[in-house]
């Protein structure tokens, strides 16, 4: 989130992770733009997806702008510390990634179309970094709600990789796994760039087009 900040770029061992806490940390009650409750159950007919692409401020804005996306929220996932705080995540000693949870209507926007936004919206070859942001919390990740979604995510990676290579980029470092526990980030992080339009965010795409989800 803050440029040129030096943070660990290797995953902490689970035995060395911070202990965390048994209760969740406070967060916003409702989405700043839509007013929809952030912790409401996924409505019937809707689906969910979770992505890590670097600074979650800009990633969330990228997804809330899409037609068919019903709700977005930011948080922490794929680490070891239960109910971490932002300050703890920033130490690199929780193992968590900054992620965006997306609730969407698959009758309007497909999971493949979300994957296209994911691949085109950041550089998935940077390892434990994105832009000027360095640290394990900025890694590229797709956290899948179902086996079918995981199959699509892996297929999209194989489709996009040759295009990146042809454009001079290295190997994709994106982790793809079943969706782990999602922990809400603090109130001020939710829809941050709607509240602070001039806020910093270091994510940026490669300019390489991903053919997955076109027209979906």
UniProtKB/TrEMBL annotation:
<dbReference type="InterPro" id="IPR002569">
    <property type="entry name" value="Met_Sox_Rdtase_MsrA_dom"/>
</dbReference>
<comment type="similarity">
    <text>Belongs to the MsrA Met sulfoxide reductase family.</text>
</comment>
<protein>
    <recommendedName>
        <fullName>Peptide methionine sulfoxide reductase MsrA</fullName>
        <ecNumber>1.8.4.11</ecNumber>
    </recommendedName>
</protein>
<feature type="active site">
    <location>
        <position position="55"/>
    </location>
</feature>
<comment type="function">
    <text>Has an important function as a repair enzyme for proteins that have been inactivated by oxidation. Catalyzes the reversible oxidation-reduction of methionine sulfoxide in proteins to methionine.</text>
</comment>
<dbReference type="GO" id="GO:0008113">
    <property type="term" value="F:peptide-methionine (S)-S-oxide reductase activity"/>
</dbReference>
<dbReference type="GO" id="GO:0033744">
    <property type="term" value="F:L-methionine:thioredoxin-disulfide S-oxidoreductase activity"/>
</dbReference>
<keyword id="KW-0560">Oxidoreductase</keyword>
<dbReference type="GO" id="GO:0005737">
    <property type="term" value="C:cytoplasm"/>
</dbReference>
<dbReference type="InterPro" id="IPR050162">
    <property type="entry name" value="MsrA_MetSO_reductase"/>
</dbReference>
<dbReference type="Pfam" id="PF01625">
    <property type="entry name" value="PMSR"/>
</dbReference>
<dbReference type="GO" id="GO:0034599">
    <property type="term" value="P:cellular response to oxidative stress"/>
</dbReference>
<feature type="domain" description="Peptide methionine sulphoxide reductase MsrA">
    <location>
        <begin position="48"/>
        <end position="201"/>
    </location>
</feature>
<dbReference type="InterPro" id="IPR036509">
    <property type="entry name" value="Met_Sox_Rdtase_MsrA_sf"/>
</dbReference>
């Amino acid at each position: 989130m803050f440029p040129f900040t030096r943070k660990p770029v290797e995953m902490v061992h689970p035995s060395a992770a911070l202990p965390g806490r048994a209760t969740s940390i406070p967060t916003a009650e409702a989405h700043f733009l839509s007013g929809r409750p952030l912790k409401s159950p996924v409505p019937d007919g809707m689906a969910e997806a979770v992505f890590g692409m670097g600074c979650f401020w800009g990633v969330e804005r990228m997804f809330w702008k899409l037609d068919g996306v019903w709700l977005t929220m930011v948080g922490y996932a794929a680490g070891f510390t239960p109910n971490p705080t932002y300050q703890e995540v920033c130490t690199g000693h929780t193992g968590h990634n900054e992620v965006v949870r997306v609730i969407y209507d698959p009758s309007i926007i497909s999971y493949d179309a979300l994957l296209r936004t994911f691949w085109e919206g950041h550089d998935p070859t940077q390892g434990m970094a994105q832009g000027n942001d360095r640290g394990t919390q900025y890694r590229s990740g797709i956290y899948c709600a179902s086996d079918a979604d995981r199959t699509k995510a892996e297929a999209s990676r194989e489709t996009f990789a040759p295009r990146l290579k042809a454009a001079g980029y290295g190997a994709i470092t994106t982790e793809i796994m079943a969706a782990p526990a999602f922990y809400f980030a603090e109130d001020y992080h939710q829809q941050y760039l709607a509240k602070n339009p001039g806020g910093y965010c270091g994510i940026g795409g490669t300019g390489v087009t991903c053919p997955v989800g076109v027209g979906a």
